[in-house]
Amino acid sequence: MSPLGSMRVQRWTPLSVGSVAVSVAVLVLLAFGPALFSPNVIDKLTTLFIYVLLAITWNALAGYGGLVSIGQQAFFGLGAYAAVRLTHAGMSVYPALILAAILVAAVSVPLSAFMLRLRAGEFAIGMWVVAELLHLLVNLDGLIQGETGTSLIALDAYSAVARRALTYWTALGSMTVLLVLLLVLLRSPTGAAIQAIRDSEEAAASVGVRVLTTKRVIFVVAAFGAALAGALWLSTTITFQPKTYFSVQWTAYMIFMVLVGGLGTFEGPIIGAVIFFLVGTWFGADGVWYLIGLGATALVFALFLPRGLWGWVDTRFGLRLLPVGYRVVAGREPPAVPAIQTPHIRS
Amino acid sequence: MNLLAVENLQARHGLLQAVRGVSFALHKGETLALVGANGAGKTTLLRTIAGAHPASGGRVRLNGTDIDDRPAHQRAAMGIALVPEGRKLFSRMTVEENLLLARAAGRPGRWTVDAVMQAFPNLQKRRRHLTAHLSGGEQQATAIGRALMTNPDVLLLDEVSLGLSPLVVDQVYAQLESLMASGTTILLVEQDLRRALRVADRVMCMLEGSIVLEGAARDLTREQVTEAYFGLGRATVAGIPA
User: Quick one: CATH architecture of B4-241?
Assistant: First the structure.
């Protein structure tokens, strides 16, 4: 049963209807990408889709759920590792990428029983500790050979052209599914409960919201998204080195994309991912200056646009392209009782 | 039978024992005011009863059922509603959304959005406004309305006058008195002794985590409560000489 019982949530405007229609058209066009674009463009778009996956799932966790984690690389690395293990066991590569993410999501359920008892900074640091622990555990696997790592050899079963197209479609499909999943989740009564918990956990519990269960939903979804991104990244780079996949830089990238795009907005992280992708494409070869530039950009946004680009647009113009929100409407209410007559409050 | 029975309740904040062996009963339709200086343990006691803070000992029974091991959301579903200190509204939601979220408790009853709007008419024109943009009085009315939407057996009110101007406090209390008159059972934390003595059926005074004075509001003088408030004279505990 939904944690909120008989309520429903709605937020559709003409603008959001149009935006969803345009988004669907763009996704359909992108589905024909391998037939339309050059191999280089396909590779870059695949990277962009993975960035979007990382950004939207971290935003769901931190921006909507209030659970700021700096250890999402735990799931990113674990997703890639699980894919390596599944393919080593004989599974086809692309189903293995999806199954790896599902397995990591399953692992995140018992993990959530411990981690969600931590609050604020404790949770953030705790997740980083979990990532480091998982990194060390993965290093113990003989197949991985410590920090030497291994490769996704099973990709040899595909030609370079087929591999590029399949990876692209898997990334596009994963991004689309996660976007739709989050859209549906955040528009549901559970989504309203998630945002209530972010505003005040105590108040949410005091009116009957099942805090731990609701937080677990968003925690597991975020773990699934990060794991899927990790498995997909493996299919683009082929090599798996634990140090790279369990690096905190992945969470730093997520935070950058979400802060620049707009924390707690649905549109913002997508815009943030595009900005991060463009900056990486144009300046990624500049080594340390690229990283300094990223840091400086994050600093400028934190100082002058603390709600991010879309957060500013939302505040300034009240624009919401996608119908995410918490227009909570009761399904059916019992008849009202006779009124208690009370005076107006003036303040 | 007592609606709410608290027996030897203990609660800690780390090494600090905030609530020390508190016992009392709350009867149906009664308003019990809990007074005491800052740090006396009033808020911790309320939060412990609501399940928002873990008890380190003792029992809490609602309608004769032990609820010690029940989390906060289950206690809400069983009939305990907390209006927390500082209101703690869902600030990025509208008044109506705040109220409707309280349906999560899943308790049928007389309180609906329309009933809350009738009880707090000042909210009617603000029902689709974000609560972050409301005045303090409107926010407090929303917080009380949100708690009522769970159709509680017991309403726990923590410092409803906090941060409000005297005029607005008067108006909030006028609304509360209407609730009390309608038979709502209320446990009220209040710093203002005069107001507590005026609206409550019974008054309890806490000092350093313990109940140091308890009695019917009509039998207590402001001086008696003030002495207990500051620990000057622990004259009576539940009417028993110290």
Answer: 3-Layer(aba) Sandwich (3.40)
Nearest-5° angle of CA B146, CA A217, CA A62?
A: 80
Q: b/e for A174-189, b at 16 or more Cβ within 10 A?
A: bbbebbebbbebbbbb
- Cβ contacts of B136 on chain A, cutoff 8 Å: 347
Q: Residues in chain A whose beta carbon is closer than 8 A to a beta carbon of chain B?
A: 3-7, 189, 192-193, 195-196, 199-200, 202-212, 326-330, 333-337, 339-347
Q: Which residue of A has its CA nearest to B150?
A: A207
The residue ranges of every structural domain in chain B are 4-241
Give Cα separations from A346 to A4, B169, B178 (angstroms): 33, 10, 17
The more confidently predicted of residues A3 and A115 is: A115
Least confident window among A16-25, A245-254, B159-168: B159-168
Position A287: which residue type?
A: G
Give burial (CB, 10 Å; 0-12/13-18/19+) of A196: buried
As a whole number of angstroms, the distance between CA A298 and CA A312 comes to 15
Size of interface A-B (CB pairs under 8 A): 167
Domain boundary assignment for chain A: 7-330
pLDDT band at B233 (very low <50, low <70, confident <90, very high): low
Q: How far does CA A347 lie from the centroid of its chain?
A: 42
In the predicted structure, residue B46 carries a pLDDT above the cut 50: yes
Question: Taking the model in full, what pTM does it have?
Answer: 0.80
The average pLDDT across A337-347 equals 34
Backbone φ/ψ region at B34: left (φ over 0), alpha (ψ -120 to 50), beta = beta
CATH topology assigned to domain A7-330 = ABC transporter involved in vitamin B12 uptake, BtuC (1.10.3470)
